[in-house]
Amino acid sequence: MELTSIFIFLNMGGPELILVGLAVLLFFGGKKLPELMKGLGKGIKEFKEAQKDVTEQITKGLEDDTK
C-alpha cells in the first residue's frame, strides 16, 4: 500500500517502471542484480526491526512514566 502511494506521487505507471527496470538491469548486469536485491531486502528487514524496537522502547517508557 505504501509503495503504491509512492508511485502515485511520482506519477509512475507500467511503462515507466519497465523502463526503470531495464535501466537498472543494464547498469548493474544480470549477475549483480540478485545480490543487490538481497542486500536491499536485508536492509529493509533491519530497518523494520529497529523501528519496532524503538516503538517498543517508547511505549515502555510511557507506561513507566504513568506508574
UniProtKB/TrEMBL annotation:
Chain's role: Part of the twin-arginine translocation (Tat) system that transports large folded proteins containing a characteristic twin-arginine motif in their signal peptide across membranes. TatA could form the protein-conducting channel of the Tat system.
Bilayer-spanning residue ranges: 6-28
Primary localization class, coarse: membrane
Membrane topology annotation: Single-pass membrane protein
Keyword terms, alphabetized: Cell membrane, Membrane, Protein transport, Translocation, Transmembrane, Transmembrane helix, Transport
Subunit structure: Forms a complex with TatC.
Subcellular localization, as worded in the UniProt entry: Cell membrane
Annotated signal peptide: none
Domain of life: Bacteria
Presence of keyword Membrane: yes
InterPro entries assigned: TatA/B/E, TatA/E
Name of the protein in its database record: Sec-independent protein translocase protein TatA
Organism: Arcicella rigui
Entry's family note: Belongs to the TatA/E family.
Entry keyword annotation includes Transport: yes
Residues forming coiled coils: none
